[in-house]
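Hi all, posting the design record for the shared folder.

TITLE: backbone redesign
STEP: 1 of 1
STRUCTURE INPUT:
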């Protein structure tokens, strides 16, 4: 039978975080885009589906760049190279320019729309961005438009199959959360069923950098045959004025997705792919309840005769210190796959006693 005793405190625990369940806390989600910049590689034989997961737009061999060069558009070919390097810089060194993304919910819904027949039929992602003083987002759009389209004779310079590229879009926890319970607190946590050694990849309480994606899981959309749409990229918007006190200029661009697959990994070890042969579902949930058994004996971590009332203060101290464990992460550094954190801040004396007292 479910134990409703102290349910309000347990709801508050979820909002603040407790160490009986390190994942039982609200999440703040962010996104990161990992473009496939490598393009086609002539040293590796690509056949069938493999070729479609590459990015001919960014390839200098058998892609858009060589196509333009062979037709006498060397300036436009160089423009694609500059476009690629600006986009690479924004992705890895200045990802804050990518402020917001929309359209992932439509793709998620379309993934199970069996009646639709083709899940990427209406898949379009819109990315809202900042604009800089040097108009780098506008330059990005101008380089692409000038290379791909002949704006004088209103025709396409590059065929659609050479405008394709691939990318991964990650959705994951935005913060740099890790958990380290110092001193006797680790023994208390282990007694409550928390695996402190595995938590945040901190072995023996040491300060070891961990990977946010590995620790907390992520959702990912693997997209191919994508195409940029910069038709709506105009930093001036629908109107301009002479005032300099209004909000800074923003920008946006769209990405049409030709095909996508879903991929996800979760903290319990489950890995889910569209490919059933790669999917691995794990079930540690029966063991996870061990850490919360004690909480069902009272309102908040009560019923522990050895610790007594001090466990209440310990839990509250840990809760109030959660915000200092890490900072905000840079969501696209290292192609969204190597999220590293700053050093862990010590939670201090979680029992509220002077250090050294028994």
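Okay, here is what came back for every position:
SEQUENCE:
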């Amino acid at each position: 039978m479910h134990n409703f005793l102290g349910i309000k405190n347990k709801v508050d625990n979820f909002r603040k975080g407790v160490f009986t369940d390190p994942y039982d806390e609200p999440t703040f989600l962010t996104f990161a885009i990992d473009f496939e910049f490598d393009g086609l590689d002539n040293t590796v034989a690509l056949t069938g589906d493999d070729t479609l997961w590459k990015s001919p737009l960014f390839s200098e061999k058998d892609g858009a760049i060589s196509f333009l060069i062979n037709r006498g558009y060397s300036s436009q070919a160089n423009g694609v190279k500059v476009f690629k390097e600006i986009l690479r810089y924004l992705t890895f060194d200045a990802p804050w320019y990518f402020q917001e993304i929309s359209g992932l919910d439509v793709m998620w819904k379309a993934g199970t729309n069996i009646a639709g027949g083709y899940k990427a039929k209406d898949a379009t992602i819109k990315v809202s961005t900042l604009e800089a003083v040097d108009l780098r987002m506008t330059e990005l759009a101008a380089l692409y438009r000038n290379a791909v389209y002949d704006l004088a004779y209103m025709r396409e310079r590059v065929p659609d199959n050479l405008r394709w590229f691939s990318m991964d879009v990650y959705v994951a926890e935005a913060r740099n959360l890790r958990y380290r319970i110092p001193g006797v607190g680790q023994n208390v946590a282990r007694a409550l069923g928390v695996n402190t050694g595995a938590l945040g990849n901190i072995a023996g309480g040491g300060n070891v950098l961990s990977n946010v994606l590995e620790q907390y899981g992520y959702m990912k959309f693997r997209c191919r045959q994508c195409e940029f749409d910069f038709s709506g990229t105009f930093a001036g918007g629908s109107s301009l004025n002479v005032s300099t006190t209004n909000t800074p200029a923003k920008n946006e661009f769209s990405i049409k997705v030709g095909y996508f697959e879903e991929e996800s990994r979760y903290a319990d070890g489950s890995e889910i792919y569209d490919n059933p042969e790669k999917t691995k579902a794990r079930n540690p949930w029966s063991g996870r309840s061990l850490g919360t058994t004690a909480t069902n004996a009272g309102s908040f971590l009560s019923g522990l005769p050895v610790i007594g009332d001090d466990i209440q203060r310990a839990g509250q101290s840990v809760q109030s210190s959660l915000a200092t464990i890490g900072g905000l992460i840079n969501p696209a550094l290292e192609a969204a796959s190597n999220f590293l954190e700053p050093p862990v801040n010590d939670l201090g004396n979680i029992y509220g006693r002077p250090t050294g007292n028994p």
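COMMENT: Strands lie at 29-35, 98-102, 124-130, 149-150, 155-156, 165-173, 217-229, 250-256, 259-266, 271-273.
Let me know if anyone wants the other runs.
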